[in-house]
Write a structure and sequence with these properties.
Chain lengths: 286, 312
């Protein structure tokens, strides 16, 4: 990844230097022109390579769910390519982590996530949460559920529609938070509660979108139960279950099923029974 | 305020079908501009040529100004794309949180800005359609669903879901023949090996069709495996269970009125109503299907009502 960046920056700096030289020397000469053309060509070649990798990334993302073997070979092929823009290489490794996660190779997935989290990531892949929400069989896309109740009103339609508040921009899913979510899940799967806790703390430090908040809720509850914090798992239960209601059905059912144990251990039979009935109705095997 | 309860009425009137049609016509998806894609490269080549040919002096500054302009232009394009994505994500989140009126307002405002991004454009129209359906403007939502179905490429994974949603909107707006035709086209979903949100919504639509058309006796056989069929909908499966309770209730009443062969439908009504209210509050159920108010008015069903919120 460092080599990619160094090469790209060097090429960019050389191009600028030659433009400066070309603009300050009269009749710069054929040699200078050839060098500039070569550098420009190199820049375009690199950009085209990046574009090809970006196209490949979209194909990999599409194959992750249905054809993981093909996705793996495409990832390997893309990672061998050089030079690739840093952000694209990060995304390729991210897809590799997702693949390992799907294959339940949790140790490898955690190692990739750990390594990637050492880089400065930011919102390298805006919309990652949305796309991966869909990849994970998420029923959260607004076109995928008949949920909701009607509201009524009385003002003129166009005027009323035009009077909406401006949206918050702080709800973007970032690559970092998605990696942290996968890391927590892998660490919990590996029974490494200390590392899971550390990753959860990091997840609480940045803004999260709604989908990521839902995923964090599930993972945090799982962590709390695994660590023996039953009372904590059952705290703010109504609020948690409201959020669970907008999770995909399997996740919603799993959260209900998870909470039965703490309710029983804390001697709350009515709550345990209520959770069990809902979990069964939602499809969880209790 | 509970997420599952209908939001408080706000000063809002959903758009009419004509307004939706005009809004969509005024703001179509026009795709990426080739000029905008190639302009930076052309400008860069121009900067290089000027740098090589211009004499020293003020003209030598021109390539720098072009490069500076390119940097600002690229940064602005990236920022704008991210801002639009963030707005679309926010609108989707509001729809998920059942703030449909607010989500619809923001989607309506976003649409004129996403014409250059067809994927985002279609997503915004889809959110508008769903929101309109759920704020009681099913007729208007049909315009948006039709727009999507005409433009989405064949084989697009979202088409089936949109068709099922359209069928529900057709039922809600009393386009019963259209709904029937739409559901007939989706018959393959009956034999789907895997249950998913689309197949579950289809089964819900089949049930709603029978109940909306008062073919309650025809709805009763759909109870077979209904819980498993609707499970992908999560707590929204409660709408289906409530409709099944209503079908049993009406059949029981009709049989009592006719004085013919009487099968006691009260236990089945209570069982389905119990399932429905365990997943969704009563006001959410009646907010979506007003016909269900008859069940809330029935005192014999009071004991069947469950809590949709956790007991203390």
């Amino acid at each position: 990844m460092g080599l990619d960046s160094t090469f790209r920056w060097s090429l960019g700096i050389l191009l600028v230097v030659f433009i400066v030289a070309g603009s300050s020397v009269t009749g710069g000469g054929a040699g200078l022109m050839v060098l500039m053309i070569m550098l420009g060509g190199g820049w375009i070649w690199m950009s085209l390579g990046g574009a090809r990798t970006a196209q490949m990334l979209a194909i990999i993302t599409a194959h992750l769910e249905h054809d993981p073997i093909h996705a793996e070979s495409l990832i390997a092929q893309s990672l061998r390519r050089w030079p690739v823009p840093r952000s694209l290489r990060l995304l390729l490794y991210h897809r590799l982590a997702v693949l390992r996660h799907r294959q339940q190779r949790l140790g490898e997935c955690a190692a990739i996530c750990d390594a990637l989290l050492n880089y400065r990531l930011g919102a390298a892949d805006p919309g990652a949460a949305w796309r991966f929400g869909q990849l994970r069989g998420n029923a959260l896309a607004p076109t995928t559920g008949p949920h909701g109740a009607a509201s009524s009103g009385g003002a003129d339609a166009a005027g009323a529609i035009g009077a909406g508040a401006s949206p918050s921009v702080a709800t973007m899913g970032s690559l970092r938070s998605h990696l942290l979510l996968m890391l927590v899940e892998c660490r919990l799967g590996l029974n490494d509660l200390r590392a899971a806790h550390a990753a959860l703390i990091q997840l609480h430090q940045g803004p999260l979108g709604l989908l990521e908040t839902l995923q964090r809720l599930g993972l945090q509850t799982r962590y709390e139960i695994a660590a023996g914090y039953d009372a904590l798992a059952l705290s703010r239960l109504a609020e948690k279950l409201e959020l669970a209601a907008i999770m995909p059905a399997p996740a919603c059912a799993a959260l209900h099923a998870m909470l039965i144990g703490p309710a029983q251990r804390l001697d709350k039979p009515i709550l345990a029974s209520w959770l069990r009935r809902r979990a069964e109705l939602l499809g969880a095997t209790v | 305020m509970s997420l599952l309860s209908p939001p408080k009425p706000v000063d809002f009137t959903p758009p009419s079908p004509r307004q939706v049609q005009e809004h969509l016509e005024r703001n179509p998806a026009i795709g990426h501009s080739r000029a905008a894609t190639w302009a930076p490269l052309v400008a860069l080549v121009a900067a290089v040529i000027i740098a090589m040919t211009a004499p020293p002096g003020p003209a030598a500054m021109l390539p720098w100004l072009i490069i500076l302009g390119l940097l600002f232009y690229s940064a602005a394009r990236v920022r704008r794309a991210r801002d639009l994505e963030a707005r679309a994500a926010r609108i989707q989140e509001l729809a998920l949180l059942r703030r449909h009126a607010m989500s619809l307002r923001l989607a309506w405002k976003l649409l004129p800005h996403v014409g250059r991004n067809p994927e985002l454009h279609m997503r915004t129209v889809a959110i508008m359609a769903l929101n309109m359906d759920l704020v009681g403007a099913a007729e208007s939502s049909l315009v948006a669903y039709q727009y999507l179905l005409e433009r989405l490429p064949k084989g697009h994974p979202g088409i089936v879901q949109i068709q099922v949603q359209a069928a529900l909107a057709q039922l809600a707006s009393d386009h019963l023949l259209d709904a029937d035709a739409t559901l007939r086209r989706l018959r393959d979903l009956d034999n789907a090996k895997q249950s998913n949100v689309a197949t579950a919504t289809y089964h819900l639509a089949l049930l709603a069709q029978q109940v909306c058309t008062h073919h309650d006796a025809d709805a009763l056989p759909l109870a077979q495996g209904l819980v498993q069929k609707l499970q992908p909908l999560g707590v929204d499966a409660g709408y289906g269970y409530a409709l099944m309770a209503l079908a049993h209730h009406r059949v029981g009443q009709r049989q009592a009125e006719d004085g013919g062969e009487i099968r006691n439908h009260a236990p089945a009504t209570a069982a389905w109503w119990s399932k429905a209210t365990l997943l969704l509050p009563v006001d959410a159920l009646t907010g979506r299907y007003r016909e269900l108010e008859v069940l809330t008015a029935d005192a014999t069903l009071a004991g069947a009502v469950q809590r949709a919120t956790p007991p203390q």
